[in-house]
Amino acid sequence: MSKTVELARHLEKLHINNMYKNDFYWTWDKTEEELDAIFTVADALRDLRERNKSTRIFDSGLGISIFRDNSTRTRFSFASACNLLGLEVQDLDEKKSQIAHGETVRETANMVSFMADVIGIRDDMFIGEGHKYQKTFMDALEEGYSDGVLEQRPTLVNLQCDVDHPTQCMADLLHIIHHFGGVENLKGKKVAMTWAYSPSYGKPLSVPQGVIGLFTRMGMDVVLAHPEGYEVMPEVEKIAEENAAKSGGSFTKTNSMEEAFVDADIVYPKSWAPFAAMEERTKLYQAGDQAGIDELEQRLLAQNAQHKDWTCSEEMMGKTKDGKALYLHCLPADITGVSCEAGEVDSSVFDRYMVPLYKEASYKPYIIAAMIFLSQVKDPAKALMEMDASGEHRKNH
Amino acid sequence: MSKTVELARHLEKLHINNMYKNDFYWTWDKTEEELDAIFTVADALRDLRERNKSTRIFDSGLGISIFRDNSTRTRFSFASACNLLGLEVQDLDEKKSQIAHGETVRETANMVSFMADVIGIRDDMFIGEGHKYQKTFMDALEEGYSDGVLEQRPTLVNLQCDVDHPTQCMADLLHIIHHFGGVENLKGKKVAMTWAYSPSYGKPLSVPQGVIGLFTRMGMDVVLAHPEGYEVMPEVEKIAEENAAKSGGSFTKTNSMEEAFVDADIVYPKSWAPFAAMEERTKLYQAGDQAGIDELEQRLLAQNAQHKDWTCSEEMMGKTKDGKALYLHCLPADITGVSCEAGEVDSSVFDRYMVPLYKEASYKPYIIAAMIFLSQVKDPAKALMEMDASGEHRKNH
Amino acid sequence: MSKTVELARHLEKLHINNMYKNDFYWTWDKTEEELDAIFTVADALRDLRERNKSTRIFDSGLGISIFRDNSTRTRFSFASACNLLGLEVQDLDEKKSQIAHGETVRETANMVSFMADVIGIRDDMFIGEGHKYQKTFMDALEEGYSDGVLEQRPTLVNLQCDVDHPTQCMADLLHIIHHFGGVENLKGKKVAMTWAYSPSYGKPLSVPQGVIGLFTRMGMDVVLAHPEGYEVMPEVEKIAEENAAKSGGSFTKTNSMEEAFVDADIVYPKSWAPFAAMEERTKLYQAGDQAGIDELEQRLLAQNAQHKDWTCSEEMMGKTKDGKALYLHCLPADITGVSCEAGEVDSSVFDRYMVPLYKEASYKPYIIAAMIFLSQVKDPAKALMEMDASGEHRKNH
User: Fold this and answer.
1) Do B376 and C361 touch (CB under 8 A)?
2) What 3-state class would DSSP assign to B49?
3) Sequence-distant (≥ 6) Cβ neighbours of residue B9 within 8 angstroms
4) Sequence-ordered strand ranges (E) for chain C
5) Scanning B2, C104, C259, C343, which has its CA 20 to 30 A from the CA of B137?
6) CB contact under 8 A, C144 and A361
7) Minimal C-alpha gap between A296 and chain C (Å)
8) What is the distance between the alpha carbons of residues C316 and C345, in angstroms, rounded to a whole number?
9) Residue among B58, B114, B148 minimizing CB distance to C365
10) Per residue in B200-221, pLDDT tens?
């Protein structure tokens, strides 16, 4: 029995009817079995690809990508996932388009979606805006479909919003599932999701929020550490608490990086901006107050600079379980002495974990493909088995 | 019998041999049967897609798109059409390319077309230039093909030029054909193609010209209304007159929006620039006279502002047939109080017609696909029947 | 027997096992039989396409293109080649990406390659940098593959570096092979690879270097002509000398354009920058010395201007074999009186050779496709025969 058949049989047992034709906004919208299904399909698609089996479900069709911020990795991950399933990516680039001329989101959403099967949106810049944009966009498509404007109702993959970064955090989690030899081995593992110093400012909160909102479901002991003033969204902290209570894990907070690192099995040191400051920034942008924005930037950089000791140094790594915690990062990292004078991580630490970091990233295209697959295929277990049995190859000759 | 088979049988009876391997510049180049064929194939492709039938005619091949102006809708429509038929879009972006370094159109045309099956060009900015550019480009490819440089002679879809906007106007027309329950019901319907105020300047004339050049062939009573000074190209007016005489409809002109709206079945209020001013602008651009361009812009904006009463208000809509004329627009519209202080249309009117407007737009990808299909498939009726009978799906599993 | 079968039988006899899963940096890395294989596959793919046979080897997969300089022709050639084989192109545009934020090449290389089969890189701007970048990129992928990060190890097509321009020069050579009726007819032909005046500065050396490094392998008499001070890389001159010695041809240098043109069968007059000046420029860029760069530009333009007599005039063409040497250019050319006041070639000469020039360019997509094919297909002769026998069409209906 191939690995894919094994995975498909596992998939058959999961209650995932709700995923078909549905969107992916946040991991906490999804049940444990639904998340399990995504990991299962991701592993199966990877296995099929390794064995040169075709995984196309589309003969034609478009995946629309919308990046409201620069992006290489996520862009390529989405393009790879779409291509693997037979969709062609069309990028809605606001600089190329007339959107700046005052089109409403509703109109644009319909206009670009006549032949779209999937929409991928990254909108992480402004607290209070990213998720709202995605929701408005998809509501418009729901309406367009029920009004008979669209032949099909495309499904959403949230490629990062102001609240969650589900494709990143699920790739992170699939990585540690494989690293520790199975999801059952994650119970009781200590995870340090900690703030780290970076000379840049205004980095999104979606990764720390996504991590505490997801990892707490696995029975892990999740510690969120940051200097005072770098709080994340309270709604997400509440979700993390509830998750931990249900899963038999824990969710704690501290203002000491060291406390988080001590005996940790996994560390995820990463810079982010204070939630309150990001809210302020959103308002300044809305008001077009450039002087205010510049002033805020200076203030935040100065605030960051007070916490240069929050860095993933060798000394700090030494405090983790056997000095060998698994180091995670969504990349790119600010590496001390490499990409900046002082940053999130020592170069010797980063270099030691380079291969695991690349593996961590390698799951993202498969996670995205699995999200698309489960929202587009009615009987995903049967589809995987058919692909496994099929003589159709990804590469011929 | 499926709808597609029905449509294919209709197609069989049409005399359309001239479409194969031919270009689409202007609707008035085409016979009534050729236009009928495009509507027929567009409806069939949509029916096939709704029934999840594969409509790929290409296993590989490129659709080259050239946009000499920003564009979201047309870009996505062309990409959707190409994808539906199996072509991959490659965009010739002059900013990315060396064209600015003085390459001639002829050379560029050949260099990008070695594996191109279809060329889509939008060049609507400069009166006297858009069509010329398309013609020069396609003549070069004709020559390249006969010289043995190109393996195939790609066919053109005019995605908008300075004279006509055939993909838009045919989508508009297919929309009203379906809205009124068949092309036979259009006879005697009154259409008001009218100028409307917009705070922007220099909008292309291709839509009003395309509409009067096409709708007059359907036996409709087409009224072109605009303030004095906003005349369109006299050559196109002449075509509209001839069409009306042949089709048993009429083509009239007026300087009163109200006169056009009274008892109209269909209204198409839209801003455009005066033809003479656009000719002047082309010359100023050619001379690189920026001061002249700026002065012209100010003059045109001031001229526009004298006609703010040319707006599709509720009051004006009340004058149409039963107060319920079908409102058309190529989108995006300048909506009073939404995208501008005063514009082409009241927001309450626009909102009431939003769903029909989106449906109108939804025909465009299928119109483009039908144009490509008819220029690339030797026996289109047979091809549609084979697709209908085939077990190949657009989406599998 | 079809042309493709004939070519496939020839291919069977060649020793080309080393090409599978291997990169293409420079032509002088490859054996004569390997180069022969590329020409053979290029001709076969063209024949298959002309006969409407499908040449897809990929059902899905990505071709990653990286252009560190503007490019239309090479961009479209690469896209055409990928499309012909079933790969979708994803362009890594540094302006769109976070690379500018300090990502290392190694990290980027892995991040964009999770589902990539082919990498195409053009990096010709800076002497000493272009090849190094390609090598660093591919070494990172080799490592990523052996570390288990990547499912496959993509192969490289050098789309131009600071040293060689193999896709261009092999297209040039395939053109002259067909022009002279076979590779055996090239022996003893005189080729003038000469510098020519252009009003722009800093053109890459990769074409003259590629030509002398490749054409000398065919038993031709290759003359490199340029004004004093316009020397190319000495390493490549050495390769040309060794090639000529082995092939029974010759490689000579002169500072007289006329000497090179006299009795030449083929002329390739083209501007390039002096190697030493390009080395200097690289250092100025690395130091961020804009004043130095500007000063260098002025100096080089002035130096160029001393050699306006180095132009491919009618008079100069008259000195070639029967006045009818085959004129080559990689395009776009600087044409006197057309794209500039005084340039590389008289417009009457250029116009007379326009069709051959376009044919020359038309080989490039097939050369690229052949490079990909030979690096991705284990038994290329068998694959071509299967494609020839297959009923699968590129265009259906």
Assistant:
1) no
2) helix
3) B381
4) 62-67, 88-91, 116-122, 155-158, 190-195, 221-225, 250-254, 266-270, 326-327, 335-336, 345-346
5) C343
6) no
7) 21
8) 10
9) B114
10) 888 999 999 999 999 999 999 9
